[in-house]
Amino acid sequence: MTATPWPWRAARVDRVTIEARCDRARKRSIKAESKDALLRLALSMVDLTTLEGADTPDKVHALCRKARTPFQEDPSLPHVAAVCVYPNMVPYAVEALGGADIRIAAVATGFPSGQIPLPLKLEETRRAVAYGAHEIDMVIDRGAFLAGHDDRVRDEIIAIKEACGPAHLKVLMETGELGTLDNVAAASRLAILAGADFIKTSTGKISPAATLPVTLVMLEAIREHFLATGVRVGMKPAGGIRDAKLALHYLVVLAETLGEDWLTKDLFRFGASALVNDLVRQIVRREDGFYQSPRRFSVD
């Protein structure tokens, strides 16, 4: 007798259709007025990130200054949505942001591998929230998921969601390790049903990271859940999104899949620090009529 698959594993992804939809999105023509607005919107959706072993309080302070004012010569540009740091750097981000309307996200649960015991994941999550994190970016146990231990993955997400208390939970798949779009879809459904506030593609530590097809599959899982429950879940593609043109492609896919309600930093983020300078460069180019020297913009 064949075992009944978990509901999140039952549906299959049509890769050809997904690729075709992404190709159409890449070819969309965006009018000048809309492009100006979308560039600013994309800037407001970035999670500005530093996740290095060499991170220091000074580096976090510099990151937060850039988060507040991405381009010192034009303070009218929108600030980013959040800064994302390791848990022990959260207090420095709190200090540097000083109550600004910028979220503080902390990676937790043994980032980037997730290969630590659950009690340690819960403790790291609680500490990050106690330090002042508004959002927790957790990593799923990909080994457990690929081995078919869905109950274990689900129960960990539920437990970590509870440990977050008032903080939002972003559940990170590391889609480059999941192997297939079917697995991406299944992991996304599982995370959403377990209580994720956001689902996220990647750590940025391995390749491939975010791609348009992977993101579209995850957006479809969000759409499916919204149509069934009326509950909105956010999306965060992360890793490899470095230029404004590609960011606009992501926003086209987002709008065509989930509609204008998701065109907000509350429901969509870019985990792409390198993207900020190109967004600013493109905005300034559209205002000045020519490209400025890269030296005019801060070095990350």
Question: What is the topological layout?
Answer:
Elements: H1 7-10, H2 15-26, H3 32-44, E1 47-49, H4 57-68, E2 82-85, H5 90-97, E3 103-108, H6 118-131, E4 135-139, H7 142-146, H8 150-164, E5 168-172, H9 181-193, E6 198-200, H10 212-229, E7 234-236, H11 244-258, H12 275-288
Parallel strand pairs: 1-2, 2-3, 3-4, 4-5, 5-6, 6-7
Helix pairs in contact: 2-10, 2-11, 3-11, 3-12, 4-5, 6-8, 9-10, 10-11
Summarize the structure.
This protein has twelve helices and seven strands.
Description:
With 300 residues, this protein is α/β, with parallel strands linked by helices. It has a single domain, classed as TIM Barrel (Alpha-Beta Barrel). Helix content is 48%, strand content 10%. The protein is built from 12 helices and 7 strands. It has a 7-stranded parallel beta sheet. Helix 9 links the parallel strand 5 and strand 6. Helix 2 packs across helix 10. The protein is globular, with a radius of gyration of 19 Å. The mean pLDDT is 93.
